[in-house]
Amino acid sequence: MTARIAVAGFLHESNTFHPRLTDREAFTRQTLVFGSDWVHEWGASHHEVAGFLRELQESGYQAEPLFLGWATPGGPVDDGLFEEVADYLCRRLQGGTYDALLLALHGAMVTPRFADADAELLRRIRQVVGQDFPLAVTFDLHGNLSESITELCPLGVAYRTNPHVDQYECGRRAAGLLLRQLRGEIHPVAAIAKPPVIISLALQDTSRPPLAAFFEAIRSAEQHSGVLAVSFLLGFPYADVPQMGPSFLAVTDADRSLAQRLVAELAERLWNERTAMQTELPDATEAVRQALNVTRTPVILVDFGDNVGGGSAADGTVLLAELLRQGARDSLVCLYDPEAVQQCQQAGIGATLTLTVGGKTDAWHGSPVTVTGRVRLVHPGTYEESEARHGGMRVHRMGWTALLEMDGGNLLVLTSERHPPFSLGQLTCLGIEPRQLRIIVVKGAIAWRAAYLPIAGTVIEVDTPGLTTVNVHRLHYRRIRPMYPLWNA
After folding, report:
1. First-to-last CA distance in the chain?
2. H or E element: which one contains 120?
3. Are the CB atoms for 177 and 232 separated by under 8 Å?
4. What's the predicted TM-score (pTM) here?
5. Does the pLDDT of residue 489 top 60, yes or no?
6. What is the pLDDT of residues 241-288, one digit of tens each?
7. What percent of the chain has pLDDT over 70?
8. Which whole number is the average pLDDT over 122-148?
9. How far apart are CA 243 and CA 400, in angstroms?
10. Cβ atoms of 78 and 22 closer than 8 Å
11. Beta carbons within 10 angstroms of residue 428's beta carbon
12. Are strands 369-379 and 458-462 parallel, antiparallel or unpaired?
């Protein structure tokens, strides 16, 4: 009889500094599917769950899709939703005749009750299926893993690229290892090391120094006999939880001492290079001044403080205000502002109106800005991305969206959902040709690069205020351990 492999995913990157919970509705507006109906959309994506399904199909195993939940990074996940999902998965696993489980987690999910919600979910699953049940987990590169992960799931594999464009391959690797375990070919054990270093988000492009050499090292380590997988998780600094920070995770074939030696060596190396993991960026005034004086366009202004993919407000106005103050032309800014979208819808296409936009979520991201412009378009806000982009998704949803054209050819994209700049489709679905713009503000850190870097003339990264500030000294941590550079040793 063909082995039946349960497949599920529950992923959220939780910013504990965000003032609002990520509730059930936030997941429903993106993906919250109990059962197998998610396969149509996500099975054709570049996400790890698509990699799970393809590896099982090509290896002749039967996939049993159980559940998939994903929401835009934001505040902690509501406890009620967490309990609903955990109870559902445990009931299905307890009542089914499954031979193994493939599970996609983020690694940085937090709820008000559980600082390490991913580990809590794994604990509950283990209580149902037992310690020896074959289980493989994939993690986002920005997971904050705790030491307990090595016992809860010895077979863990993380993405290796930032922007995350290898998620599909990560899913296939994890599934392939699980099938080898299921056949009795390997016996995974794991070790983890957590050096107390916060790696600046501005330096987290894995294809460039200082991190590229570490990913070359882990690939090299996997060539050694007995080594099954080595992962380097960069950590998610916008979660004030005890396990915050980078992790090295090694999985070996029944050789824990080898795994421990590998992660210890890598952790020591990162600690020794800790000063190289820090940098400084220009503020908004200086960055816009530079942007207005360069000749290679479009200029990509990177709004680090309002990094939507890191759980920020998405309505930060600091760069918009500065662009208007300095007289920018042919610029584009995206803002989350459902109220303004509704006003544009009511006014109708072609109408000219004055709006007060942005700065409505909190006091971190700038004050609301009053603008006047013509409604050029109103769009449902759903589009598809065919290429491998950060997040691995095929279908993107930014909710009803309005395009406002202001004086000087400046464009303002107003969305009803907080939407990260993972795809150029965010602009092209509105009829915007990005190459014709002089300045484009992207509310991100590194994720935007996969989509926007190929069309960029100049990139200027900006130290803007916000919940995802590149300067971690601005954040008020209470629960993390001493870490460099907050604790300088």
Report:
1. 58
2. helix 117-129
3. no
4. 0.96
5. no
6. 999 999 999 999 999 999 999 999 999 999 999 999 999 999 999 999
7. 99
8. 97
9. 37
10. yes
11. 12
12. unpaired
What type of residue is 33?
V
Q: Is the pLDDT of residue 4 over 60?
A: yes
Contact 199, 234 (CB under 8 A): yes
- How far CA 180 is from CA of 105, 155, 193, 315, in Å, comes to 21, 11, 25, 47
Give the E-state strand segments of 295-380 in sequence order: 299-303, 331-336, 352-357, 369-379
Q: Which residue has the tokens 């130290």?
A: 463
Q: In the block, which residue shows the tokens 């501005």?
A: 202
150-189 pLDDT, tens per residue?
A: 999 999 999 999 999 999 999 999 999 999 999 999 999 9
* Residues 192, 145 contacting (CB under 8 angstroms): yes
Strand order from edge to edge, sheet including 188-193: 188-193, 247-253, 227-233
Strands, DSSP E only, in 83-168?
A: 100-105, 135-139, 155-158
18-29 burial by CB neighbour count: b if 16+ within 10 A, else e? beebbebebbee
- C-alpha to C-alpha distance for 386 and 174, rounded to whole angstroms: 23
- For the stretch 220-250, pLDDT in tens is 999 999 999 999 999 999 999 999 999 999 9
The residue count for the chain: 489
- Token output for 451: 């989509």
Q: Given the structure tokens 């603008």, which residue do they identify?
A: 371
